[in-house]
């Protein structure tokens, strides 16, 4: 059903870094169907970002309280520089949670261009976004990839940029929570598994794809399904984090 869910008008308060109580206003709004969004849970709350209504991409943040069983729209607050900073509108981004911070990577705004490879961090306590400074082997722009968390690092696999499909694995160690006090932390990426490493080892690997799913169990990432541009896939692949293959 595409019936919108109407939320109540509520307000939330948090303690700023200066010790002052600040009101984070949450607007009463109807939550429309937005395919292509990403979700992450922090405590008893589920945070929803982005997606599309079929006409345009979104950069809104919504919060669902599992305790109160109601939706709220989160009003993004001013960050360290005194201005409101937030990711460009998009769908197809992926998210993880680490030390209470929601991280998103990638996505796109238009099918014929405007694909992203930026990394943003959302602080649910202060309702602020921070864009991480990228360095190292940053993955190319893409959407509909997968992203998982393992021992404090994110791992991305696959994706699509409007022309090319990917099957590379990249990783980035996430910053400690305190790193955000000084502004934009560094996001240093490393290519773990790609064409060059596979040519050297001769290892078998999944075909390039997007729209698949990935989960972590033990010390492995499991990837299932996706679309390779010709066929819908039903393969299950295992990637071992310690060995990098």
Report on this structure.
By secondary structure, the chain is an all-beta fold. It has one domain: Neuraminidase (6 Propeller), CATH 2.120.10.80. It is built from 1 helix and 22 strands. The protein has one helix at residues 195-201, and strands spanning 5-6, 10-15, 21-27, 30-31, 38-42, 45-49, 61-65, 70-74, 94-98, 101-105, 108-110, 113-115, 119-123, 128-131, 133-136, 146-150, 153-160, 165-173, 186-193, 213-217, 220-224, 236-240. Strand 17 (153-160) and strand 18 (165-173) form a beta hairpin. The radius of gyration is 19 Å and the shape is globular. 34% of the residues are buried.
Compact overview of the structure:
With 245 residues, this protein is mainly beta. The chain has one helix at 195-201; strands at residues 5-6, 10-15, 21-27, 30-31, 38-42, 45-49, 61-65, 70-74, 94-98, 101-105, 108-110, 113-115, 119-123, 128-131, 133-136, 146-150, 153-160, 165-173, 186-193, 213-217, 220-224, 236-240. The protein has one domain (5-240): Neuraminidase.
């Amino acid at each position: 059903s595409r019936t919108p869910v109407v939320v109540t008008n509520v307000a939330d308060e948090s303690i700023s870094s200066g010790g002052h109580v600040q009101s984070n206003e949450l607007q009463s709004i109807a939550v429309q169907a937005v395919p292509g969004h990403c979700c992450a849970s922090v405590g008893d709350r589920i945070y929803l970002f982005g997606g599309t209504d079929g006409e345009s991409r979104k950069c809104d943040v919504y919060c669902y309280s599992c305790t109160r069983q109601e939706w709220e729209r989160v009003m993004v607050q001013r960050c360290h520089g005194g201005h409101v900073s937030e990711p460009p509108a998009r769908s197809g981004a992926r998210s993880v949670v680490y030390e209470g911070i929601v991280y998103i990577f990638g996505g796109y705004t238009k099918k014929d261009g405007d694909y992203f490879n930026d990394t943003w961090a959302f602080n649910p306590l202060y309702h602020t976004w921070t864009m991480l400074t990228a360095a190292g082997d940053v993955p190319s722009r893409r959407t509909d990839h997968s992203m998982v968390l393992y021992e404090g690092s994110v791992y991305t696999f696959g994706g699509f940029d409007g022309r090319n499909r990917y099957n590379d694995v990249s990783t980035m160690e996430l910053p400690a929570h305190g790193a955000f006090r000084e502004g934009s932390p560094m996001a240093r990426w490393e290519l773990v598994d790609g064409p060059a490493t596979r040519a050297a080892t001769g290892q078998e690997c999944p075909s390039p794809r997007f729209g698949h799913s990935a989960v972590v169990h033990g010390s492995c990432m499991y990837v299932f399904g996706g679309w390779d541009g010709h066929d819908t896939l039903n393969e299950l692949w295992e990637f071992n984090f310690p060995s990098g293959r």
